[in-house]
Amino acid sequence: MTTTQPKPTHVSEKQARQVAEAARESEWRRPSFGKELFLGRFRLDLIDPWPESEPRPDADDFLARLDAYTRSEIDGARIEREARIPDEVFRGLAGLGAFGMKIDKEYGGLGLSNLHYCKALTLVGSANPAIGALLSAHQSIGVPQPLKLFGTAAQKKAFLPRLAGGEVSAFLLTEPDVGSDPARLATVAEPVEGGYRLNGVKLWATNGTVATLLVVMARVPDKGITAFVVEGDAPGITVERRNEFLGLRGLENSVTRFHDVFVPEDNVIGGLGKGLKIALTTLNTGRLSLPAMCVGAGKWSLNVAREWSAARVQWGRPVGQHEAVAKKVAFIAATTYAMESMLDLCCVIADDDQNDIRIEAALVKLFASEMAWQVADELIQIRGGRGFETAASLAARGERAAEVEQILRDLRINRIFEGSTEIMHLLIAREAVDAHLSVAGDIIDADAGLGRKARAGVRAGAFYARWLPTLAVGRGQAPTAYGEFGPLAAHLRYVERASRKLARSTFYAMSRWQGKLERKQGFLGRIVDIGAELFAMSAVCVRARAERPDRPEGVELADLFCRQARLRAEALFAALWDNTDSVDAKAARRVLDGRYAFLEEGIVTRAAAGAWVAGWEPGPATVEDVRRRIPPSD
Ligand SMILES: Cc1cc2nc3c(=O)[nH]c(=O)nc-3n(C[C@H](O)[C@H](O)[C@H](O)COP(=O)(O)OP(=O)(O)OC[C@H]3O[C@@H](n4cnc5c(N)ncnc54)[C@H](O)[C@@H]3O)c2cc1C
User: Fold this and answer.
1) Using CA atoms, how far apart are residues 133 and 120, in angstroms rounded to an integer?
2) Which of 15, 156, 233, 420 has the smallest set of CB atoms within 10 Å of its CB?
3) Hey, is 192 helix, strand or coil?
4) pLDDT digits over 300-332, tens only?
């Protein structure tokens, strides 16, 4: 039957960029704190005072039930041991409505706000991160969110009640040859009578083994990458493998083959060729779920760090009183406070629906995934040899089964999926320089003719004549500015000054490197990381001030975090111009050319033992299907 033989084609760097650019949401309809921050305009008014959330007794009640269920029924050690979330946990979570947290009430869901949803993920994720990943992949990138944003009324009616009731969904974009770069997507959806015929192989789909409804990204000839809702049990689908990883052992992650799978035309989401735009827009708020898990990991780490560092005595004192360990404890506390403040702030701004939060959500994903990893690493160090020992081994020796090495393993993937750190740097940097590109982009565009360049010159002249003077002076130089923040005012003055410096640095880099700036990934990464630190500082100050009447100690944590963040930001500023980026790039080229191969001598390698990227052929599956279906309870 198959007429199309999908094969990965050669895609140039330029074409890959064009695909990413076309998928980008180019318009800014609402104010964005993050965008302004990168332009040197510290719009504290967009996030302060802390936006009030609407009271939701039903959501509070759900969280209380989820809390009770998590404590009594979820056995994280068993999931780790068996590398499997038990059927009864799927059913228990479904009974609570956890698969419908983000689905509107009219479709049988709970209609939770982003804030309540993220609190729920933090909670269940702390019992076992694979459960957090199950629920988040299902509702943040799986079928519910794209349908909520782009689905037709008929699609919502047909699919959302099933998902709210406990059917699991998955999101299938990645392929053996498609990771960060979707331009190489090879799964094809060929138009046929009444719909499309899908052929291709999808890699690493979280929930892919258990999902009965899938979002599948496939290329429709002449139309582009398109999102489809696909029945997981449709004829022609084979779940070929359940993958195993460094961490998240309970994850139900698949290799899924599509062979002549018929999908009705009504199952196209949001129009032909709109797939990547849908994926990116879905991630605008979808990206908040990973930080929710990182916050859970931070809180958990703080708990272990506090109890252990007080109890373990070496060299005559609790280890937490030795300065080297004390610094780590302080880092864990401050960073956890910051991750939670950034996440909660993003959630309430998203719920408030007044601002564009795409930059802030991306910043919190980037920041939390990187910092939670450091938190877990420091926790292992504080725990000494016990940090390296598994919880089961600790328990077998009669000690408390703290899953410290597991948390490090489980957290690692957050820096890779839903936008790797490297890709997040580029994505955020693209937004950070958007104002410049929209006025002056044609000047540096090699494809722009003289007329376009001349018009851009006029536009840019007018923009920069207005904008550059605003970067010279600002509120952050007034010694009494932000006085309403009491002891935190000095930190906000710093953020205001640093925001202007950040914008000046970006402008200088654009003038210096012009079109080549996009290749200066070291520079761009630091610009973005400084932005993340400044956003984090702003978030902790605004939160501490809002909570001060009830929780004055929050000010201490905010102050602690800001002191640490300022040092990191200053180091990043210095490294903008004093670094080894270009020598590193040259050295890497020599490494790749094999110049230093002698350094690899004296060990045993397995380099020749298989292809780095497995090839695949279209056609029917040749292996057994390993899908897992959760039977209803008796
Ligand atoms: C446990 C797990 C669960 C997953 N769940 C899903 C899922 O549910 N659905 C789904 O579709 N996918 C899923 N993925 C895939 C995941 O999103 C990809 O792994 C991720 O997008 C990175 O792609 P890649 O692994 O192919 O890395 P590659 O794209 O091959 O990148 C390799 C390295 O190069 C860097 N890099 C790539 N391009 C650039 C560039 N232009 N500039 C600088 N650096 C660059 C990357 O950051 C990375 O460090 C999952 C993966 C794992 C491991």
Assistant:
1) 12
2) 233
3) strand
4) 999 999 999 999 999 999 999 999 999 999 999
In 3-state terms, what secondary structure has residue 531?
Answer: helix
As a whole number of Å, the end-to-end CA separation of the chain is: 41
pLDDT given for residue 448 in this prediction: 78
Q: Is 253 in the pocket of ligand 1 (CB under 6 A)?
A: yes
Q: Which two tokens stand for residue 25?
A: 């949401």
Looking at residue 631, what DSSP letter applies? Answer: P
Q: What is the mean pLDDT of the chain?
A: 94
Residue 137: CB within 6 Å of ligand 1? yes
Q: Which amino acid is at 484?
A: E
Q: Which residues are catalytic?
A: 418
From the CA of 258, how far away is ligand 1's center (Å)? Answer: 21
The values of phi and psi at residue 596, to 5°, are -105, 25
The ligand 1 atom nearest the CA atom of 420: 47
Residue 180 has pLDDT above 70, yes or no: yes
| pLDDT tens string 467-507 | 888 999 999 999 999 999 999 999 999 999 999 999 999 99
- What is the pTM for the complete model shown? 0.96
**173 CB less than 6 Å from ligand 1?**
yes
Does residue 237 have its Cβ closer than 6 Å to ligand 1?
no
Long-range contacts from 442-449, C-beta under 8 angstroms, 24+ separation: 443/514, 444/514, 444/515, 445/515, 446/515
For 621, the token pair is: 């599956």
d(CA 415, CA 407): 14
Cα 602 versus chain centre, distance: 39
The partner residues of 226 in beta bridges, in order of sequence, read: 218
Strands 169-172 and 213-220: parallel
Beta bridge partners of 192: 195
Task: Give residue-wise pLDDT tens across range 433-479.
Answer: 888 877 777 777 777 788 887 888 888 888 888 888 899 999 999 99
Our CA dihedral for 289, 290, 293, 298, rounded to 10 degrees, sits at -130
Amino acid occupying residue 458: V
The CA distances from residue 444 to 236, 464, 527, in Å, are: 49, 16, 20
The strand pairing partners of 253, in sequence order, are 206
pLDDT confidence bin for 2, thresholds 50/70/90: very low
pLDDT on residue 3: 44
